[in-house]
Amino acid sequence: MKDGIRPRRSVLYMPGANARALEKARELPADGLIFDLEDAVAPAAKEGARATVAAALAAAGYGDRERVLRLNGLDTQWGKADLAFAARLPLDAVLLPKVEAGEEVGRAVAALEAAGVPAELAVWCMVETPRGVLAAAEIAAAHPRVAVLVMGTSDLGKELRGRDRGDRLPLLPALGLALLAARAHGRDILDGVHLDLADAAGFAAACAQGRDLGFDGKTLIHPSQIAAANAAFGPSEAEVERSRRIVAAHAEAEAAGKGIVVVDGRLVENLHVAQARRTLALAEAISRKEPR
Predict the structure, then answer these.
(1) What is the pLDDT of residues 174-183, one digit of tens each?
(2) Contact, 178 vs 127, CB < 8 A?
(3) Model-level pTM?
(4) SS3 at position 8
């Protein structure tokens, strides 16, 4: 993607054992798909889920959607086999669950590379425990393959023992720490899922909050959530237009040898120009995506 920007507004969890869902996902307007071998698959169905995922990926047809495989934990009875399995698939990334230390990332990467994964395969890391939050900076910096941190807010909320609130107040300190860790090391970060499928207003509010905090996108549990996530985490027409005015005004001022730029009555500094350019690059990357 241009300037290293890849839209990750909506990333949908897909149960690895559900062949019908994996088939339908080829037509969904999500930016990314997580083929889940962990929470969404019962223990007795783990090996069958690998075969189902392999068949779906071999059939291709997922277009520009980012393809991510969520593995079982390295210390589970399925973890090592999942790593070897991932090395044989046409994937963009693997997602490691419940990461709590940089050393875990190192072990996973070593196993993947020993199995022969391509150099471009990325590693995503779930931050879903108090230990994981406190080690988020170490996790983000653990290896160059680490590209994205993914918040597991359901498990995290359980361990924090906070109340289930619409404003997610109990989660905000953890979300902030993980965001700082991701940005300090140049990683993207995705917000956690919204479990109440009947609560469209609550989902929209959670998306708006996540975008305001700085998240790049949201993980989803149902296709009905994709449109709202895409709208919330993509730049609006007004944001794109204002970004164009900022970049143009700055270029005009530079050409005239002026040191001060004012757009819409507000002083524009270099940091605002950089933000505007990133907004335009993201909008361009979204516009280049295949027609949905």
Answers:
(1) 999 999 999 9
(2) yes
(3) 0.94
(4) coil
